[in-house]
Amino acid sequence: MYIGNGMLLVLNLPLIPLWVQVLKVPYYLLYPLIILFCLVGSYSIENNSGDVIIMLVFGIVGYLMKKFHYEGAPLVLALVLGRCSKQPSSIIDLISRDFSIFISRPISLAFLVVAALLLIGPIITQRKKLSTLEE
After folding, report:
1. Which of 33, 69, 85, 114 has its CA 20 to 30 A from that of 123?
2. What separation in angstroms does the CA of 41 have from each of 23, 36, 45, 77?
């Protein structure tokens, strides 16, 4: 790690003026390039067009989250850790074929209630703010 950071320092110090020029590129040119690189990157990992569709769907979800003032970090964390949690959920699926296992257990029901409150809470507070502004 130390060697890699040292090499990055040596390589990036002379390139600071170049990075400053990249920051001066207007957004209407920069955004399509970012989207293009994301599309090429998502397709090139497994040469699967389904990955591109998934990337576009989550891009739209990310845009909507930003528009409605939700944090994006939990979504990214969920996507990264999703593969780790896939195995336990498949075990639960093997144990029970219906959704009632999540409601019948008190701990899982509590987690579902907390998740629902966390999803609905910002919507309710935003509507309260809007109603107080209208009065």
Report:
1. 85
2. 22, 8, 6, 19
